[in-house]
Each structure stands twice: as C-alpha cells, then as structure tokens.
Amino acid sequence: MSELKIFHDSQPDTLEQHLTDKAAMAKALADAGIRYEQWQATQTLSDHPQQDEVIAAYQADIDRLIAEEGYQTVDVVSMVPDHPEKAAFRQKFLEEHRHSEDEVRFFVEGQGLFTLHIGDRVYEVLCTKGDLISVPANTPHWFDMGPNPRFVAIRLFNNPEGWVANFTGSDIAQRFNRLEN
Q1: Is residue 174 part of a domain?
Q2: Does residue 180 lie in a domain region?
Q3: pLDDT score for 76
C-alpha cells in the first residue's frame, strides 16, 4: 500500500501527517512541488516483461510526460531479492543527495521508498505498483529499495549521463525510516 509520512526534519520520531489515500497524497506532494500520480497499463503484462513490453503498456502516459517535461530517454530497471549486488545498489542512494535533473520513476511492480527533504520537512513516500513520482532537479532526497528489493520501474531522463548523485554530506537520512521488506 502506498503511503506518505511527513515529519519535521529535526523530529524524526514525531509523525506530523500520515496519508494512504492517493488523491490526498498527490495534493500534499503537489503542495511541496512534487509530481505524484497513478498510471494504468493499457495491456496485460507477461510474468517477466521485457523493456519494450513495459513501455508499450504505458506509452500514452510516457508520451504525455515527455510532451509536458521534455524528457529525452526512457528505460526500464528491475531488481529482485536474489540479485548478487542488491546490497551495493541499495547502499548507493541511501544518503541524502541531489541530481541536476528530475528523478522520475514509475513503479510497474514492487515498491521503493523515496524520502524528500524540502525546507524543514521530510516526506517519506512509499511508492508501489501504479505510482509515479517525479523528484524535481536539485531536491535533496534519498531512496531505499530495502534489503529484499523487488521492483520493475520505468525511468525517464533529460540526460542519463547527467543523472549523477551529488551527495550533500548531511547525515539526515540516517535518522529517518528505512524500507524493511
């Protein structure tokens, strides 16, 4: 189940707001400058869909986002619990960082926890199947796929080479929740 938890950045043990209604989540995130929406596949996917099949199932929404935001490339990434490098991939984005372009993810399957540090608030967004999140360029955030990751996600980029994590040096991510799957 998707959910949004909002905290003050100095009080990680005090939950200010907890939302599970997707429309309410979308409004709260939009108020913070974050795009959050739901997509539906236009065709049934196979049990282990390949990139072309996944993209075709969501082509209308992908095309709409490209037209609105100017994204240049689209790909599909997946992770499974028995991936030999899952711990390294998880660790890679667990600390607060920024990107010079938007970080756009649509969850075809599975889940991931995006945590955004905006002003003096921390927004924990548990994305699940059907959720799209777009973290605007230069927004401090971190991502956790959990110790047993399982997801298939569509990614949209302006420039994949420019999608590099620029770490802030803050330890804030260590004080907030992790995804335990």
Answers
A1: no
A2: no
A3: 96
Q: Is 179 within a domain?
A: no
Element at 107 (helix H, strand E): strand 103-118
Can you tell me the distance from the alpha carbon of 26 to that of 7, in angstroms, rounded to the nearest whole number? Answer: 17
Convert 30-69 to b/e letters by CB count within 10 Å (16 or more is b): eebebbbbbbebeeebeeebeeeebbebbeebbeebeeee
What is the distance between the alpha carbons of residues 80 and 142, in angstroms, rounded to a whole number? 20
Question: Does the pLDDT value for residue 160 go beyond 80?
Answer: no
User: CA 11 to CA 116: how far, in whole Å?
Assistant: 15
Give per-residue pLDDT as tens, 73-84.
999 999 999 999
Mean pLDDT, range 126-151, rounded to an integer: 97
* CATH number, domain containing residue 165: 2.60.120.10
pLDDT at 152 exceeding the cut of 80: yes
SS3 call for 53: helix
Instruction: Note whether residue 67 is domain-resident.
Output: yes
Range of the domain at 153: 3-169
Query: What's the number of domains the chain is made of?
Result: 1
At 15, is the pLDDT very low, low, confident or very high (cuts 50, 70, 90)? Answer: very high
